[in-house]
Design goal:
This protein has 98 residues and is an alpha+beta fold. The chain has one domain: Molybdopterin biosynthesis moea protein, domain 2 (Alpha-Beta Complex). The two termini are 35 Å apart.
Amino acid sequence: MRLTTVSRAAGMRLARDLPATGPGRVPLLAHGTLLTERYQRALLAQGIHAVWVDDELSDGIEPVELIFGDRPRRDRRARPRRARQGARRGRSTRASGS
């Protein structure tokens, strides 16, 4: 598995789902989908410029999730947001157990 630009991904298969653009929605494209030129244009139009692909070059390689692992992006954003809200109210987030 490797990360590559959408413009170079035609003919490759997605190694990971492309996440939904909003809560409760299905992924844009599912793992294993063959990236066609049509999909390339659509992804670029959505502002997506890189995707994880499976190919011979990266066969057997799995990236290390260094910082956040598989936690959804919204979960990663929640803690700083709660800290800012607590700071505005004059409270520490540590005291509330978060």
